[in-house]
Amino acid sequence: MFDQLSSRLQKVMKYLRGEGKITEKNMAEALRMIRLALLEADVNYRVVKDIIERIRAKALNQEVLDSLTPAQQVIKIVRDELTAILGEEEKPLRFAGQPPTILMLVGLQGSGKTTSCGKLARWATGLHKNPLLVSFDLKRPAAQDQLKMIASQLHLPFYEMSREEMNVPERALKELLSFTKNRGHDPLIVDTAGRLHIDEELMAELRLVKDILQPAEIIYVGDSMTGQDAVRSAQAFEEKIGLTSVILTKLDGDARGGAALSIVSVTGRPIKFVGTGEKFDKLEVFHPDRMASRILGMGDILSLIEKAEEEADIKEAEEMTRKLAKDEFSLDDFRKQLRQIKKMGSLSQLLKHLPSGGIFKNISAVEMDDRKILHFEAIINSMTPREREDPRIIDGRRRSRISRGSGRPVYEVNQLLKQFSEMKKMMKKSNFKKILTTIPRSR
After folding, report:
1. Rounded mean pLDDT of the chain?
2. Per the confidence metrics, is the pTM higher than 0.85?
3. How far apart are CA 244 and CA 271, in angstroms?
4. Which end of the chain is more exposed for a tag (fewer CB within 10 A), N or C?
5. What average pLDDT does this structure show over 195-207?
6. Nearest 5°: phi and psi at 17?
7. Rg (CA), the chain
8. Do 155 and 279 fall into the same domain?
9. 57 in the Ramachandran plot: left (φ > 0), alpha (ψ -120 to 50) or beta?
């Protein structure tokens, strides 16, 4: 989502690094570039004005100007200000001291609210919780069919209300609360009515749910693809019923990112999760500092490690670490890692967590195709055990045979061997051995 903004801000950072000294003149140019980048990303103009003024005041501080590395100081200031408008730090989801915790999701129709209920329930099961899903919409009782289907796909319990029950909503909600407590469900995740626009009828219904269930969290679900429309509707929900937090959906899309960079400042409510895909496991805890680093091309290795932790096989990771230490890493091991990467998600999305410079510069610049993993796996499968163990023996004749066996052109065989060689060199230069050693032990 932030590709365009990230590209423009990285040009600003490059410009500042090229200046030996920070002056009012070159700082004015840098601020102009930052302002344009933010406005083009559809960030609220008041938010842009505030961040520019704060950066200006801090960057032209005498302590920064006299620093031995003024450009680095200014880049840190920009990063800190981006982190601030994204919410400063991660805000965990609040669970009630006395179960059940009730999570009430609100938002406009089409924002991804119902799917987010399923994602949130799946996330809760990872915390060894026992979630219950329910849909409450007085105007469209059939709206619960979609959530019922999602609950079935996730093998999670769903509380179904009849049309007769919904005719007496106060009693229906009290019976839901009693059922949840008696069956030991926690959290209760409530999908509420969705409309194409905000009206008083919708708000009255939401206030009814809020007053009876007393939710620990009222979570606004906003479609980040709609930009400032998501910000305006979040502001309306905040004013009418009160919010505690935000889930932004479709963060994997190609929108300009203005909603994520405006919604916290405008509503005063933190983003707690972001949806990064359609599958139910594509819900991530939101870390403002990590997102700010990614926007500025500094990478987000911590989130990448956490993704790896979820899928890592402890014995395999320890064995691979040992092989890396002894320079025994083979194409068989490489194939295992390709399979692990497939479990972690889209390769292009994973690469966005890497810094844009240093040893990752060439990797991040490559236009990655997720089908390439399948092709590489097919090529490795067509090799003999000896070839996988020692790729140096693969000459022209062997490459032709591997090409025919895998159904891939010879140049792809060459490409695989080259990338495998470069990866081994990169791992020797980096701290990947240390990272791989810590991953299984931190679980």
Report:
1. 80
2. no
3. 9
4. C
5. 85
6. -65, -30
7. 25
8. yes
9. alpha
